[in-house]
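From the methods appendix. Each design record in this collection lists the tokenized structure first, followed by the designed amino acid sequence. Records were kept in a plain field format so they could be parsed without special tools. The example shown here is representative of the layout used throughout.

RECORD:
FOLD TOKENS (196 positions):
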């Protein structure tokens, strides 16, 4: 008796979370990161595109994810990222702006959608992430441009911590109805259909 293969299911925010996870992890092999950031951005885009077309700020998040994908491709080549960092710390920060901008726009959208759905707890978490991501974007300007070196430890801490919080919240909230829990069903034969 053959058992019918079950379809694979992934919610939009789960796909985004998988992409964010690839951004956070490194596994070097021959100088290359086998957990490549461009692959992470493809997963983020899969998740964002799976959100309903009317989902708040969806197109802005997609545009920033595409920009981050384009930016991440040359940085995946061994030596390029370190050359950018060696050239100027502010340049390395500027190259990361599309990533944090995408996270910021998505967090803002999720805070608004959660609040509209009456999920105040989730809205509060995402609003806090919005503020933290805004700080990640602004603090380097104050450190590099304004010479306020006392803010550098805070900026470094937030750059490391906030993406991890984003990852956890994406996974925790992926199944909430307001998070567009509609899924793509991918059958083993490769056909697709939408299932709620």
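DESIGN:
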């Amino acid at each position: 008796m053959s058992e019918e293969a079950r379809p694979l299911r992934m919610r939009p925010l789960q796909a985004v979370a998988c992409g964010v996870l690839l951004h956070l992890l490194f596994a070097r092999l021959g100088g290359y990161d086998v957990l490549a950031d461009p692959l992470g951005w493809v997963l983020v885009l899969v998740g964002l595109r799976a959100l309903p077309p009317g989902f708040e700020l969806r197109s802005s998040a997609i545009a920033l994810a595409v920009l981050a994908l384009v930016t991440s491709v040359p940085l995946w080549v061994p030596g390029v990222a370190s050359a950018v960092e060696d050239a100027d710390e502010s340049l390395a920060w500027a190259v990361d702006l599309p990533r944090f901008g995408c996270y910021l726009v998505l967090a803002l959208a999720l805070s608004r959608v959660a609040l509209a759905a009456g999920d105040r707890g989730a809205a509060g978490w995402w609003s806090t992430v919005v503020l933290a991501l805004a700080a990640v974007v602004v603090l380097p300007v104050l450190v590099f441009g304004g010479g306020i070196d006392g803010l550098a430890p805070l900026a470094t801490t937030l750059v490391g911590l906030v993406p991890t919080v984003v990852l956890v919240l994406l996974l925790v909230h992926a199944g909430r109805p307001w998070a567009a829990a509609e899924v793509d069903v991918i059958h083993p034969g490769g056909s697709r259909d939408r299932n709620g």
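APPENDIX NOTE: The chain has a mean pLDDT of 86.
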